[in-house]
């Protein structure tokens, strides 16, 4: 990178116009890497052709999730997001929002259920239809962290009684149907494996989608009837998050706690076990009422790693609705000031178009 001569003035002489397009390419690249808000990155590239050519959307800094607001009572044709670290609200026009249920969380795409089913990237406006037989009634269970950029499956309940599970691979439009017991808690697809919480015992059923085999991982601790189980991929590992949630109190702060376990897979898979984890390192977990996602955090964002952000929406509790942060290190809970008291889910914004071949 070019060095600055300290003898030179830091400001241009009065009356002299500065041509910002003359900034060195390596300096432009360094500046762009410090833009943590995806919209700032877009504005930066829009300044001129040279600034655009000096950067690439593949060099975009890792993004933290946006919180999606959805309230079908208002029938809006726009989607509103709240960027937690920048404290900004972003609004994106999307006519289907007025009559569709939007689900997440994921990297880049929202699941849209509005009579037909699709995945939609609100930044690139890419939309991919999920093809299914008309006699099916698909209800999303899991779409994993990256439903399009990976070759993984999405999971659906596909009948009125939730007795049949359908696994859909978007790149090939391929369905697999399996009769599985209805298990409680949250379900999760990752790298061809489907994780379920067994009724009553709290044990984890791990189902291999390709070959149809399964194995059981015992629960390390007895669950209470009010406990919820999430499965989340974090830095390549599968985590089991047990949420202890008490919304019965009428005080402003609910009682929320978490136990976190990491799956240790042994050479003999039936010997696999959950091991208690006291930290998730530089990751942050973002949970909604049904699913979760994990992302790495930079200190420059102002957000602390090793924390869990959880949404309580109005359907769960009108008293406690809002956004909460749980510090895994000390177990402390605090409510986060947020303009959305009825947040719905999370989306990691992504400018990269990754449509599978033959899709539009």
Topology of helices and strands:
Layout: H1 25-32, H2 38-45, H3 49-53, E1 66-69, E2 78-83, E3 88-93, E4 101-103, E5 106-107, E6 110-113, E7 117-120, E8 127-129, E9 139-142, E10 153-157, E11 164-169, E12 174-179, E13 184-190, E14 193-197, E15 204-208, E16 214-217, E17 227-234, E18 237-246, E19 255-264, E20 273-276, E21 283-287, E22 292-296, E23 307-312, E24 322-327, E25 333-336, E26 343-348
Parallel strand pairs: 5-26, 21-23
Antiparallel strand pairs: 1-2, 1-26, 2-3, 4-6, 6-7, 7-8, 9-10, 10-11, 11-12, 13-14, 14-15, 15-16, 17-18, 18-19, 19-20, 21-22, 23-24, 24-25
The biggest beta sheet is recorded as:
5 strands, mixed
Structural class call reads: mainly beta
What is the overall silhouette? Answer: globular
CATH topological fold name of the largest domain: Neuraminidase
Rounded average pLDDT:
84
Query: Which regions contain 5 or more consecutive residues with pLDDT less than 50?
Result: 6-10
CATH architecture of the largest domain: 6 Propeller
- Give the tally of β-strands: 26
Please state the CA-atom Rg, rounded to the nearest Å. 23 Å
CATH C-level name of the largest domain: Mainly Beta
Description:
It comes from Rhynchospora tenuis. This is F-box domain-containing protein. Residues 20-56 form the F-box domain. It holds the Pfam family Beta-prop_KIB1-4. Residues 81-313 form the KIB1-4 beta-propeller domain. This protein folds into two domains: 20-59; 66-348, 6 Propeller (Neuraminidase). By secondary structure, the chain is mostly beta strands. The strands form six sheets. The protein has a five-stranded mixed β-sheet with strand order 3-2-1-26-5, with no helix packed on it. A five-stranded mixed β-sheet has the order 22-21-23-24-25, with no helix packed on it. The longest helix has 8 residues, at 25-32. It contains three helices and 26 strands.
């Amino acid at each position: 990178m070019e060095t600055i001569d300290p003898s030179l003035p830091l400001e241009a002489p009065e009356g002299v116009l500065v041509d910002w397009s003359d900034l060195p390419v390596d300096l432009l690249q360094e500046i762009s890497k410090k833009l943590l808000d995806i919209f700032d990155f877009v504005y930066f590239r829009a300044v001129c052709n040279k600034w655009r050519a000096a950067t690439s959307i593949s060099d975009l800094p890792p993004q933290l999730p946006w919180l999606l607001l959805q309230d079908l009572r208002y029938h809006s044709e726009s989607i509103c997001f709240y960027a937690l670290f920048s404290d900004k609200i972003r609004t994106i026009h999307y006519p289907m929002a007025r009559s569709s249920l939007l689900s997440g969380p994921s990297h880049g795409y929202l699941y849209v259920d509005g009579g037909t089913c699709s995945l939609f990237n609100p930044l690139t406006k890419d939309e991919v239809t999920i093809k299914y037989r008309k006699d099916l009634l698909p209800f999303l269970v899991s779409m994993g962290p990256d439903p399009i950029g990976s070759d993984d499956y999405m999971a659906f309940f596909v009948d009125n009684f939730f007795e049949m599970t359908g696994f859909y691979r978007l790149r090939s439009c391929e369905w697999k149907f399996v009769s599985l017991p209805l298990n409680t808690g949250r379900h999760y697809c990752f790298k061809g494996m489907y994780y379920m919480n067994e009724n009553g015992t709290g044990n984890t059923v791990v189902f291999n989608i390709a070959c149809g085999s399964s194995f059981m991982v015992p629960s390390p601790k007895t669950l209470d009837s009010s406990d919820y189980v999430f499965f989340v991929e974090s830095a390549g590992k599968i985590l089991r998050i047990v949420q202890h949630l008490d919304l019965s109190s009428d005080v402003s702060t609910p009682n929320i706690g978490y136990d976190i376990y990491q799956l240790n897979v042994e050479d003999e898979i039936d010997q696999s076990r959950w091991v208690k984890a006291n930290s998730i390192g530089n990751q942050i977990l973002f949970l909604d009422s049904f699913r979760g996602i994990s992302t790495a955090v930079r200190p420059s964002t102002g957000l602390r790693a090793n924390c869990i952000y959880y949404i309580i929406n109005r359907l769960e509790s009108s008293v406690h609705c809002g956004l909460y942060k749980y510090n895994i290190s000390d177990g402390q809970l605090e409510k986060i000031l947020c303009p959305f008291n009825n947040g719905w889910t999370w989306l990691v914004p992504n400018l990269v178009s990754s449509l599978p071949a033959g899709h539009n």
